Amino acid sequence: MLVLVCFITTFTSVTSLAKDYSASQAGKTIDSLDVDGNGEIDALTDGLLTLRYLFGLQGDTLINGVVAQDATRTTAEEIEAHLETLMPAL
Ligand SMILES: [Ca+2]
Q1: Is pLDDT above 90 for 11?
Q2: Residue 65 near residue 57 (C-beta atoms within 8 A)
Q3: pLDDT digits (tens, 9 = 90+) for 31-41
Q4: What does the domain layout of the chain look like in residue ranges?
Q5: Following CA atoms 30, 76, 53, 82 in sequence, which dihedral angle do they give, to the nearest 10 degrees?
Q6: What pTM, to 2 d.p., does this model score?
Q7: How many angstroms is it from 86 CA to the middle of ligand 1?
């Protein structure tokens, strides 16, 4: 009986930890998609910045007309540095 109680307790704890970890990782991923750092994920700003970056655009060509007015990352250097952190290591 003691073994069963220990198993159930351990299983419940591991399941809870896995859910917490998954939720925290999902939150990090969603935050990372906010490329210009204005607190929102938007296709016409963050999406276009990501697309342009993936096409190899840099500098003013990367950011012209697509950075939100309330962005905290406003320069090409800041945007490129943030997008670089999202790229998988090769
Ligand atoms: Ca954004």
Answers
A1: no
A2: no
A3: 889 999 999 99
A4: 1-32, 34-90
A5: -30
A6: 0.69
A7: 15
Q: Check whether 77 has a pLDDT greater than 90.
A: yes
Q: Give the pLDDT score at 34.
A: 95
| Polymer length of the chain | 90
Q: Where are the alpha helices (DSSP H) in the chain?
A: 2-32, 48-54, 60-63, 76-86
* 8 A C-beta contact, residue 32 and residue 70: no
Distance 62 CA to ligand 1 centre (A): 15
Indicate the average pLDDT of the chain: 82
Q: How many Å lie between the centroid of ligand 1 and the Cα of residue 14?
A: 34
User: How far is the C-alpha of 49 from the C-alpha of 55, rounded, in Å?
Assistant: 10
Q: How far is the CA of 73 from the centre of ligand 1 (A)?
A: 9
Q: Is-contact 52 46, C-beta < 8 A?
A: no
